[in-house]
Amino acid sequence: MSSSMASSASQSADENEGFDLLKCSTVQEGKKDAEIRLPLGYRFDPTGDEILVYYLFNKIMDRAMPTYDLIKEVDVYECHPNQLPNGDFRHTADFNAAYYFANREPFDAREGKIIKTATDGGYWKVIDDEEEVLFKDSDVIVGFETVMKFYKGQAPNGTKTPFVMNEYRLNPRVVPAHVLNESIKTKIERYVVCRIINKEVSNQPAIDYGQGLLQLLQKSSAGTVEDGVPK
């Protein structure tokens, strides 16, 4: 395991006692985007811990996820966000966020500012300290969130754009030791989920049913939803 993984994951084994990531992340076989029938107003807007537990961890382990194509696999650091399909920015209540699995880019410090490079016309700059992401109401740190902003041009003199990224990476300390072979360790080190938000997109009205997409899908897999309507 790399030093960056060890240093940022501050939990001890005792702090995770009783927490079984394999068990709590288990979902029934997921659906394709086109197969999901939701009432008007529902939006794909998972919390940070849901992204880490139900999507990123299951992606790393090649296990079932609630849905299979709402989070695409794209090397977002290889392109300007303007090159991403407009149709991907359709999530959250504001219709302005896109979600991607990506290979984590290494940090680079230039003139006291931490940035991540992009190869086509700009760079991502870290604008806040990395934050711990807790699982639900527990004290279990399931991952870490880093917030970045995209600048066009060359660092450190780039121009701000309306694109903001929340990058989520898994805490290796919560992954059961018996599944940590070299392949899984490499995937944990490299794979992240990136939520990219285009701040220029204006808010659009959405109906709030008071229940997230993941909860609805879990009820559907349990047979408590019929034609998109909770029983």
From TrEMBL:
Keywords: DNA-binding, Nucleus, Transcription, Transcription regulation. It comes from the Eukaryota. Pfam families: NAM. The keyword Nucleus applies. SUPFAM superfamilies: NAC domain. The keyword Transcription regulation applies. Residues 38-199 form the NAC domain. GO terms for molecular function: DNA binding. One of its GO terms (biological process) is regulation of DNA-templated transcription. GO terms for cellular component: nucleus. This is NAC domain-containing protein.
